[in-house]
Amino acid sequence: MSVETGVAPAVAPAATVPDDHVIVLFGATGDLARRKLLPGMFHLAEAGLMPERFVIVGVSRSEMADEEFAGLAREAVENCGHGPVSDATWDRFASSLRAADVGRGYDALGEVVRDAENELGGEPSILHYLSLPPSAHAEVIENLGAGGLVPGSRIILEKPFGTDLASARSLDKALHVVFDEEQVFRIDHYLGRDAVQNLLAMRFANGMYEPVWNRNLISHVQIDVPETLGIGMRAGFYEQTGAFRDMVVTHLFQVLGFVAMEPPNDLTSKSLMAERQKVFDAMLPIDPHRVVRGQYVGYRDEDGVASDSETETYVALVASVDNWRWAGVPFLLRTGKRMAQSRHVLTVSFKKPPRRMFPIDTRHFADSFGCDHLTFELGDPGSISASFLAKLPGPTLRLGQAHMHFSYGDGFGGTEQALDAYERLIHDVMVGHRTFFTTSEGVERLWEVGEPLLRDPPPLEFYEPGSWGPEAAESLIKPHHWHLPSGHI
C-alpha cells in the first residue's frame, strides 16, 4: 500500500542565493572533499545556489598548482557527482578554483585569499571549511587567527568535535580565542538529510502523531545504522575514534534529539536548537553495562591498524531520556562496520493494546518485527512506512500485517530537485542559517553523556564480517529485538 502525495498550491519562496564568497577548503585533496564537498559545490552551482561570484581555494600541505587542483576537482565531480558534466558547465566552475600550499606556512594562503577578494571585488564573505581530523583543528584555527583571516568569516568544522569531554572543551576554548560562536558551524551531515529533517514535519505538522508521541503509547525507539563497508583508507582516523565517537556521539545522538524534542515555539534556529538541547540535558549517562562493543574479524590486519587494537568497529547501547515525555522508554542504538546490510533506519514501536480480541495470522506477517510501528528510512532518498494490523479477506475476523508507505523517490515528482546533505548544509552556512548545526553546549553535553563508557568500556566481542555483529547485542535489548524493514534481525 502506498501513499499519494501532492504539491501544495502555494509556491514556496525561491531559495536564497548567497552573497559573493571566498571558500577556503582545508583538506582539499582528502577523501571527503573528493566524495562530497567538491561534487556538492559543483551541484550547487548547477542549481543556481552558489553565489553569483565565488572562488574556492583548495588548501593542501604540498605544492599544488591551480590546474592540478582543477583536474582533481573534475575527477571528483565525474566520479561522485549527480550526473554527466558538460565542458561548458565545468569551465564556468573551474574558473573559480585556486590552490594554496600551507606546508611552509600560512603566508601563501593569505596572499591567495586576498587575491581572490580583490578579484571578486566589494566585500565578499570568507568561509573556512576544515575537512580535517579533530587533531588538526586547533593548529589551523590558531594560524587563521595569526594570519588575519578570521574577521567577518565563518568556519565549518567536521565531526567529531574532539574525542572526549576534555578535548572538546580544549578545542572549544581554542576556537573561541579566535572566532565568535556566531561564526562557528559544527557540521553533522545527518542533520542535512531530507529524511531526518522530515521528522520535524511528521511530528509537528500532522495532528495525528504528536498526541501519541510519548511514554504512554511508545514502547521503544531504535536508531540502527549498520554499514557493509570497512574502514577503507581511514585507519589513522578510525584508530583514534572508533564507532562510538565516529557515529553515536555525533549522528545517532543527534537523530535522537529530533525524535525526542518537545514542540518548538517556531521554526527559528534559536527555538529548534533550544529544544534539542533540552533533550541532551535530560539524557542519562551511558551505563557501560548496557553497551556491547564489537570488532570485526580481520580489522587488526588492516593497514595502519595496531595488531592489538582495542578500537571498536561496532557498538550497540541503550540510551535513556529522563524527562516527563520519555521516562522509561529505551532508545536502542546500533551501528557497525562490515555488517550484513547498509541501512539508516529509525523505528518507533508502539505499545500493544491492553487486550487483543482478534486472532492474528502470523503467516501474513511480511516483517518479523511485528506490527504497530513507524519506520523511517533516513538514507537517501528516504521513506516512511507505517505497519499495522488489518482484517484479512474472508468470513472470519483474522488479522494480518499491513503497511502504508511513502517514498521520497516516488513522491513530489521524484528527487530531481533534491540536494545532498552536505550541499544543503554548505548552502545554509553561506546564507547564515544555523538550524541544523550543533552548538558547543550540545557537543559538550553529549560527551558528558558518553563519558562513563569512554572511561570504562566493556571488553570487545569479535564478529564475522557480513554478520549482524556480536550475539550479545540480542540479549542487550530483550524483550525487544533489532528491526530492519526487510525482516532481517
Layout of helices and strands:
Blueprint: E1 21-26, H1 31-46, E2 54-60, H2 66-80, H3 87-94, E3 97-101, H4 107-120, E4 125-130, H5 134-146, E5 154-158, H6 165-178, E6 184-187, H7 194-204, E7 218-226, H8 235-260, H9 269-282, E8 291-296, E9 314-320, E10 330-336, E11 345-350, E12 373-377, E13 383-391, E14 399-407, H10 421-431, H11 440-455, E15 460-463, H12 472-476
Parallel strand pairs: 1-2, 1-4, 2-3, 4-5, 5-6, 7-10, 8-15
Antiparallel strand pairs: 7-11, 8-9, 9-10, 11-12, 12-13, 13-14
Helix pairs in contact: 1-2, 1-10, 5-6, 6-11, 8-9, 9-11
Q: Any overview of this molecule?
A:
- With 489 residues, the protein is of the alpha/beta class.
- It is 33% helix and 19% strand.
- It has helices at residues 31-46, 66-80, 87-94, 107-120, 134-146, 165-178, 194-204, 235-260, 269-282, 421-431, 440-455, 472-476; strands spanning 21-26, 54-60, 97-101, 125-130, 154-158, 184-187, 218-226, 291-296, 314-320, 330-336, 345-350, 373-377, 383-391, 399-407, 460-463.
- β13 (383-391) and β14 (399-407) form a beta hairpin.
- α5 (134-146) runs parallel beside α6, α6 packs antiparallel against α11 and α9 runs parallel beside α11 (440-455).
- The longest helix has 26 residues, at 235-260.
- It starts with 20 loop residues before the first strand and ends in a 13-residue tail after the last helix.
- Residues 1-14 have low confidence and may be disordered.
